[in-house]
Specification:
By secondary structure, the chain is of the alpha/beta class. It contains 10 helices and 10 strands. It folds into 2 domains: about 10-90 and about 170-180 and about 190-273, P-loop containing nucleotide triphosphate hydrolases (Rossmann fold, 3-Layer(aba) Sandwich), CATH 3.40.50; about 100-165, no CATH class.
């Protein structure tokens, strides 16, 4: 069983969404996706966002990343209103095959985002080596993405984010494109990296097991337009593993509770499926 967390002083907020609304299009063809959504994520938390398809999960993530501007409301990063991508934030996308450039080596892919941030080529190389070593791929510096398996490519994408040394890591369905065994390995890897580098993680996922296993909190979006319908604290302890943690009665209770909320707010056809 994992070691149970002891109560601690709440850490300061790092990401705050205050009354966020987002509308796409105008007039009769326009659609309000999010309305008056509030959410606070504290430093070093792992927060997963779940909900029915089309509930605005990725829209929330893109607003946090500064890639979308809310129609109303405000996103704050470390207390400062987000006007564009914050410099201490990195994103890992679902489709690793498109996020890695096939004509660059693994080292080139990992150091690419650093070229406007780190002037020294030696420091960029050092960061790439450190990040790839952290994900178990120190031997791949001179290889190309197409020479690696899917799971290894996704680890490269995670290494690229680590090399950037972000305070906050955003992940959009990061393990959806890999097989079940690789997904489990990547989940455990990310938990270890998150603790090692003290990173705040906000992840969007459709996988309820993943959300409960990985997170300190699980946020359920629902409604049309969407808002936060539930905020679950995941009290499964600090140390987790794929067998003992998922065998705990508490894991099953939390999984059922989250799934119940997601299905309650899903469209009838989706809930039946």
């Amino acid at each position: 069983m994992g070691e149970r967390e002891t109560p601690a002083e709440p850490r300061e907020p790092v990401v705050e969404l205050a009354g966020i609304s987002k509308r796409f299009g105008d007039g009769e063809t326009g659609r309000m996706i999010l309305e008056s959504l509030d959410l606070t994520v504290r430093r070093e938390e792992y927060v997963s966002i779940v909900g029915p398809s089309g509930s605005g999960k990725s829209t929330v993530l893109r607003c946090i990343a500064g890639l979308l501007t809310p129609t109303s409301g405000e996103v704050r990063f470390e207390g400062v209103a987000v006007q564009g991508p914050p410099p201490s934030l990195a994103v890992v996308f679902q489709d690793y095959s498109r996020s890695l450039l096939p004509w660059l080596t693994i080292e080139g892919n990992v150091t690419l985002p650093l070229r406007g941030k780190v002037d020294s080529a030696a420091e960029r190389k050092e960061r790439a080596e450190e990040a790839l070593s952290a994900v178990g791929l120190a031997h791949t510096l001179r290889q190309y993405p197409w020479q690696l398996s899917g799971g290894m490519q996704q680890r490269v994408a995670i290494a690229r984010a680590l090399a950037y040394r972000p305070k906050v890591l955003l992940m959009d369905e990061p393990f959806a494109s890999v097989d079940a065994q690789t997904r489990s390995d990547l989940e455990d890897l990310l938990l270890a990296l998150r603790r090692r580098f003290a990173i705040t993680v906000i992840s969007v996922t459709h996988d309820i097991d993943e959300a409960v296993y990985m997170s300190d909190r699980v946020i359920v979006l629902g409604g049309q337009p969407a808002n936060v319908v539930s905020d679950f604290t995941i009290d499964l302890g600090v140390d987790r593993d794929q067998i003992s943690t998922k065998s705990e009665p508490r894991f099953a209770e939390l999984r059922a509770a989250v799934l119940r909320e997601v299905r309650h707010d899903a469209p009838p056809a989706a809930a039946a499926a």
